[in-house]
């Protein structure tokens, strides 16, 4: 599985998840985990927001498919049900969030991938789906889903902690893009262009920031592993 901050291709995502991810919202794929694709790029089709402290994500639901009967999906409410009265992906995620809120069950766990540039994606890590609601956006209603960085992976009756020191804050999309351009898409140590990671120069838990490009760099997998949490 990928590590938070790892840069990957769309094909690699699909291979690991064992499914095509084109629809963006994918409820309970292989292994029981859900997957969403996000983007904060200019002209992105949906409005996704990362909180200022980098710990939560508010993800916009998806529109109805374009069709002869619905030539402009942006003009109608985002659907909760299909024409056959089954849940859409919006409906599935909404039902899971509301079940968590009402019944206090374990939250739905969601892997989040982010598009940085055409053909370039970043694994943002594992999140808990903790809330959902519908709100007016212009003249129509859209779904919003609130996700918080997870501190544990559900493994049946067991829980295993994962990457608490390295995965407790998201790097903003604008910072990732600035770092990618500054470092020219290659490891700052050896120039490798494959198996790259967004790395904190000073780790967050040692006072390093996640929200400024000056504290983020590109490292290849080998140098990222060698560094671990050491300041170089």
Describe how the helices and strands are arranged.
Layout: E1 7-8, H1 10-17, E2 25-26, E3 34-38, E4 49-50, E5 56-60, H2 89-103, E6 108-117, E7 120-137, E8 140-149, E9 152-155, E10 158-161, H3 173-182, E11 196-200, E12 216-220, H4 221-227
Parallel strand pairs: 3-6
Antiparallel strand pairs: 1-7, 2-3, 4-5, 5-8, 6-7, 7-8, 9-10, 11-12
Choose one word for the global shape.
Answer: globular
- In angstroms, what is the radius of gyration? 18 Å
Please bin the fraction of helical residues. Answer: 10-25%
CATH topology of the largest domain: PUA domain-like
How many alpha or pi helices? 4
Structural class: alpha+beta
Just name the CATH architecture of the largest domain.
Answer: Roll
Assigned CATH superfamily of the largest domain: SRA-YDG
Distance between the termini: 26 Å
Estimate the strand proportion: 25-35%
Unreliable residue stretches: 153-166
Q: How many structural units, i.e. domains?
A: 2
Oligomer: single chain
Largest sheet: 8 strands, mixed
Number of strands: 12
CATH class of the largest domain: Mainly Beta
Q: Give helix and strand order, one letter per element, not per position.
A: EHEEEEHEEEEEHEEH
Mean pLDDT: 89
Describe it.
This protein has two domains: 7-163, PUA domain-like (Roll), CATH 2.30.280; 171-232, no CATH class. 17% of the residues lie in helices and 31% in strands. It is globular and about 55 Å long. Strand 4 (49-50) and strand 5 (56-60) form a beta hairpin. The protein is of the alpha+beta class and 232 residues long.
